[in-house]
Structure formats: structure tokens, C-alpha cells
Design brief:
It is built from 14 helices and two strands; from the N terminus they run H-E-E-H-H-H-H-H-H-H-H-H-H-H-H-H. The chain has helices spanning 3-26, 43-71, 75-82, 94-113, 116-122, 126-137, 144-167, 180-211, 215-239, 257-264, 268-294, 297-304, 307-318, 325-371, and strands at residues 29-31, 37-39. Helix 5 runs antiparallel to helix 13 (307-318) and helix 9 crosses helix 11 (268-294). It is globular, with a radius of gyration of 24 Å. 43% of the residues are buried.
Length: 381
């Protein structure tokens, strides 16, 4: 199997696991510091664990470099994991890390308030903003087919958000709050987060391609910056009074760490889920940067969009959500837009390949015509 196909598969599976394990944890009733039952609502904690996973990438990067220097370098390993670049500056990862911190806290909060399938489908909005920001910062050009795809995706998102407001009345299995305002708030938080993620992905693509840095190293530095920034935010959020639906804690704050410690005691399943989430985030973010560096941010999002199929299968089997025709219609419209965007990319690749083939053929013909006048006729026997 081609390593790119294998990495893409790991990327999709790890992303699917991240969404499902967080949604599962949000449904758990744990005892808080006030000795009462609360839902497990810790968006800042999950963000901190995500960056801890990325920091593990930095440790792995250093370990591979040390082994490679002692035993001799491996060409493929150096190119994919351990290449070094004098043009790379670690501080260049600070801005995308800040964007990722804010977006991730919004995402985990939105996932707590809405459905897992809606969460993943609304994340398709990042493709819209990646396309727009890539024209601004990467000098990309969007064709008419790209704009039609963006319009179709927007229609699908509008259908999904409006449907969530309606189905909250009868589909309440995984929702902590069953009012329309809460689920609409969750959907809008995810949408805002994808605007930030769109800007982050485009900036990362530009930095990775200009500095030619190892994706593992870039992910590691994001983990270092993310741990510092999120730790400072965690202290603030521990004392920040919040209103409903953001105060599912003993002290009615945004993210209560005393509840976290009390809830994890005697709960090995939740501890193992958080450990698995950390490792999965390391794989997901490293491979995402790898795809952005060697392909594009749009392809990174197109690959990420495949996990919605796995999430749909899981929630149907586990009966987490009720599926109706309107839900399926919104999903189909969204996928039509994503497929249209993907076909536009394939069309661009096809035209580029044909153009290169014609250029190579023209060079070959020119070389033959240049050599022909100097060639000597064959001897006649």
C-alpha cells in the first residue's frame, strides 16, 4: 500500500475516534467536587490534551533524529519525518497555534451542545474559508466550479443547522440541553471555529511549503506553544463565571478542574478514553500537516471530510441519533458540494498534467529537429 494512502486512512480513522470519544465523554455522568452528578464538560481540558498529543510529536521527532544520526540516515524517513530546514523559525507556528487554541475550545464546546453528525458536517464549512483565504494569501484561483461548490456547501450547512433546531424536540439522546437556543449556539460556535481553522490551514500550508520543514517538527512546536497558551487559559477558565449552557460544573465556571480530578477518580474507562484521545490527536495533527505540506489545505479538508461517513455509521449502530429524510437531504447536499469541489481539484490536476505532457513532447520534438541537420545519412550497402 502506498504510504500516502496509509497515512490518509490513519488520518480519517484518528479524526473519527477523536469526535466519538469526546462525544462519549460528554455523555458521562461524573461526581463533581460538590459530590453531585454533572456531565463531563471540559473543552479546555480536551484542548490541552490535544496539544499534549502534538508535543509528543516533538519528542518522537527528536528520538528519530537521534537514532538516525547514530545508525545512519534513511532516505525516505529523512524526507518524511526528520528533514531539517534552516529557513524554519519555530515562532512561525505561534499564530496558527493561537488560532487552533481558540477554534478547538469553540469546537469542543459546540460538540457538547449539538449532535456528533452535525458537528462533523458543519466542519465542512472550513472548505469554504480555505478556498477564500487561499485566494488572498496563496495566490490560488477559484474557478466557476469552485464557487458553485462553495454555494452548494453553504446550502447544505443552512439545511443542517435549521434541521437541528427542529429535531431537538424529538432527538434528545446525546444532548445535555434540549432547547433550541442551546443547540443553535453549539452549531454557530462550530461555524465560527471553522473560520479560524480555514485561516490556520492556509497559513500552515504557506509556512510548511516555504520553509520545507518536517511536518513532525512543525506539529511538535505547535504542541509546545499550545500547551503554554492553553495552560494559561485553563487557569483563567477555572475562575471564569459562566451562564447556561456553559456552566455544567460545581462552581458554575467555564471549565472546573476540581470537577475533573473528582470525576476521574475511580473511572478507568474515562481515563483510558482521554489517553487514547491524546495519542490519536498526535497522529491526526501530524498527518494533517503532512498532507498540507505535500499536497494542499483543500486536500487536507477533503480527506478529513471522509470521516463523516464513519461517524454516521457509528451513531446509527449505537442509536445515538434518529435519522430522518431531511437529515439525509442536508447530508447529500453537503456531500454534493464537497464532491464538486474535489472534482474541480481533479480537473485542475488533469489540466496541469496534460500541459506538462505537451511541454515535454514539444521539448523532445525540438531536440530532434535540432539534431536532424547535423545527422549523417546511413551508408548504402
Amino acid at each position: 500500500m502506498d504510504h500516502r494512502v496509509f497515512l490518509s486512512l490513519i488520518f480519517v480513522l484518528s479524526g473519527t475516534f477523536n469526535v466519538l470519544v469526546v462525544k462519549w465523554a460528554n455523555q458521562q455522568q461524573v461526581i463533581g467536587s460538590d459530590e453531585k452528578l454533572h456531565r463531563f464538560q471540559h473543552p479546555v481540558v480536551f484542548t490541552l490534551l490535544m496539544f499534549l498529543g502534538e508535543f509528543l510529536c516533538f519528542l518522537v521527532f527528536k528520538l528519530i533524529r537521534m537514532i538516525s544520526s547514530r545508525r545512519g540516515s534513511i532516505a525516505d524517513l529523512d524526507n518524511i519525518l526528520t528533514q531539517d530546514s534552516s529557513e524554519f523559525r519555530p515562532l512561525s507556528m505561534l499564530l496558527p497555534t493561537v488560532l487552533d487554541v481558540v477554534a478547538s475550545i469553540l469546537l469542543f464546546t459546540g460538540l457538547y451542545l449539538t449532535y456528533a453528525t452535525s458537528f462533523q458536517m458543519i466542519r465542512g464549512a472550513a472548505l469554504i474559508f480555505v478556498g477564500i483565504f487561499s485566494t488572498m494569501f496563496l495566490n490560488h484561483t477559484l474557478s466557476g466550479r469552485h464557487w458553485l461548490a462553495i454555494f452548494t456547501i453553504s446550502c447544505g450547512l443552512l439545511d443542517i443547522i435549521s434541521l437541528d433546531v427542529q429535531r431537538v424536540g424529538y432527538d434528545q439522546v446525546t444532548l445535555p440541553y434540549t432547547d433550541q437556543k442551546s443547540i443553535l449556539t453549539g452549531d454557530l460556535l462550530i461555524l465560527i471555529a471553522e473560520i479560524l481553522h480555514g485561516l490556520q490551514y492556509v497559513y500552515e500550508e504557506k509556512q510548511l511549503k516555504t520553509s520545507n520543514v518536517a511536518p513532525l517538527q512543525a506539529a511538535g512546536w505547535q504542541g509546545i506553544f499550545g500547551l503554554i497558551i492553553t495552560s494559561l487559559l485553563a487557569i483563567c477558565m477555572h475562575f471564569l463565571p459562566s451562564v447556561s449552557p456553559f456552566n455544567e460544573s460545581s462552581r458554575a465556571v467555564f471549565d472546573d478542574w476540581s470537577d475533573l480530578l473528582a470525576g476521574l477518580q475511580g473511572n478507568p474507562a474515562l481515563i483510558m478514553a482521554m489517553i487514547g484521545f491524546t495519542v490519536s490527536c498526535a497522529l491526526y495533527n501530524f498527518i494533517g500537516l503532512f498532507i498540507a505540506m505535500y499536497s494542499s489545505s483543500a486536500n487536507r479538508l477533503l480527506a478529513d471530510g471522509l470521516r463523516v461517513y464513519f461517524i454516521w455509521v457509528f451513531v446509527i449502530v449505537m442509536e445515538w441519533e434518529y435519522i430522518n429524510l431531511v437529515t439525509i437531504l442536508g447530508f447529500i447536499i453537503l456531500q454534493m458540494g464537497i464532491i464538486l469541489y474535489r472534482q474541480a481539484l481533479f480537473l485542475d490536476w488533469y489540466r496541469a498534467a496534460v500541459s506538462r505532457w505537451y511541454q515535454a513532447r514539444y521539448v523532445d520534438l525540438s531536440a530532434e529537429n535540432t539534431a536532424a541537420p547535423n545527422s549523417r545519412p546511413a551508408d548504402v550497402i
